[in-house]
Amino acid sequence: MKILHISNYYFPHIGGIEQVAQDCVNALAGTAEQRLFCFHTEKKDVYEEIDGCPVVRAGTFAKVASQSLSLRYGKLLKRQFREFMPEVVIFHYPNPFAAHYLLKILKKYPKCKLIVYWHLDITKQKILGKLFNGQTNRLLKRAEKVVATSPNYIDGSKFLPAYRGKCTVVPNCANSERTAVTERATRLAAEIRANNAGKILLFALGRHVPYKGMEYLVRASKLLGDGYKVFIGGEGELTQSLKALAAGDEKVEFLGKVDNELRVAYTVACDVFCFPSVTKNEAFGIALAEAMALGKPSVTFTIEGSGVNYVSIDGVTGLEVENANVEAYAKAIETLAADEALRLKYGQAAKERAERLFTETVFRENIQSLIKEIS
User: Fold this and answer.
1) Which of 202, 240, 287, 294 is the most exposed place for a label (fewest CB within 10 A)?
2) Strand-pair category, 200-205 with 228-233
3) Do residues 201 and 337 make contact, with C-beta atoms less than 8 angstroms apart?
4) What gap in Å lies between CA 288 and CA 274, rounded to an integer?
5) Do the Cβ atoms of 235 and 206 come closer than 8 Å?
């Protein structure tokens, strides 16, 4: 079986879709001959091999409305089909520029089976999204299978309910390497606890962009007493405005980019994992699943049609409150802070849910079963 994966970017580029694309490649290693095609962040084309999988990166000249643009993309993609002759294509959506060329090429390869890996609807670029409606429907009609990361996203998507018969749910995985508690992580976690003795520790991690909702956590912190410490990891376009918003609140500390061991250390050290995303751009929440795998209760917002509220269950693995309601978010934090037994109960349930649904083993079985189903 020859499988061509098409993603926007790929490891070592950091991003949720890129991580899932790598998880797919790893899940199928040893069972299929694979190749991955994606964009490069620079102008030059790159040919390399990562973990035994050939990777071709098409050089880009610009990025418009989150979409990479490449003058050579179509030519290079045609070459992958001509030289590799894939039997299956796993296409990670959204990627409308790539979809344009893929649909044209697939007309010449009617026996090639298409799996559309649906990460999220295009929601931010509303006008562009409407322009691509026809293309998106053609892509879904051509697909043999459509992968959604949660049942919530099938129900809440603008497109997927019409193709429900093709849809299958494959939850993302909390990679064991990313949740490994090393000796260094254990030591760092102990230091973090010792340096903040007597305080309830909150930890949040993610890009500082609007849909991640970090501003709501910063605002909620202002409603909390002095017995808390709020650690916020990550960087982004909103970092400076978030720091300005937090000015005067000594509880909040911005960590910047953190390596994996430090991320694990802060997760282990914290009492509550805060995941304040507010829109469907947060389709699943891999960081949330990873925190659950480490046995942490969480506080989330209700996001209609998002998988976030499938990953963590209100009243079972954490608390969920009305979307963007800062007062309710602060109150949920206070509820968990006041009840250690409840934190432990939710944390244990979170770990059990992660072990049942979000492990690499479960993910590998799901992906391999999907390929067998269409073979």
Assistant:
1) 240
2) parallel
3) no
4) 8
5) no
Residues of the chain with pLDDT under 50: 125
Q: Which residues pair with 49 in a beta bridge?
A: 54
Q: Domains in the chain, start-ordered, CATH in brackets?
A: 2-173+359-374 (3.40.50.2000), 183-357 (3.40.50.2000)
Rounded to a whole number of angstroms, the CA Rg of the chain reads: 21
Residue 129: the pLDDT is 55
Residues 6+ apart with CB under 8 A from 200: 227, 228, 229, 271, 272, 333, 337
The answer to whether the peptide bond before residue 12 is cis (omega within 30 degrees of 0) is: yes
Residue located via tokens 């993603």: 7
Closest CA to 80 of 31, 127, 45: 45
Distance separating alpha carbons of residues 330 and 320, to the nearest angstrom:
11
Q: What is the pLDDT of residue 128?
A: 57
The pLDDT tens digits for 161-205 are 999 999 999 999 998 989 999 999 999 999 999 999 999 999 999
Compute the distance between CA of residue 9 and CA of residue 200 in angstroms, rounded to an integer: 38
Q: Quote the pLDDT of residue 67.
A: 80
* Coil, helix or strand at residue 72: coil
Q: Give the chain's end-to-end CA distance (angstroms, integer).
A: 9
Burial of 52-89, coded b for 16+ CB within 10 Å and e otherwise, reads ebebbbbbbeeeeeebbebeebbebbeebbeebebbbb
- What is the residue whose two structure tokens read 């230091």? 191
CB-count exposure of residue 356 (10 Å: 0-12, 13-18, 19+):
exposed
Report d(CA 167, CA 165) in Å as an integer.
6
- This model's pTM is above 0.85: yes
Q: Which two tokens stand for residue 33?
A: 């001959």
Is 97:91 a contact under the CB 8 Å cutoff?
Answer: no
* Residue 71, pLDDT score: 86
Q: Looking at beta carbons, which pairs linking 77-85 to residues 24 or more positions away fall under 8 Å?
A: 77/6, 77/37, 77/101, 77/102, 77/105, 78/105, 80/4, 80/35, 80/37, 80/56, 81/4, 81/105, 81/108, 81/109, 81/112, 84/2, 84/4, 84/35, 85/2
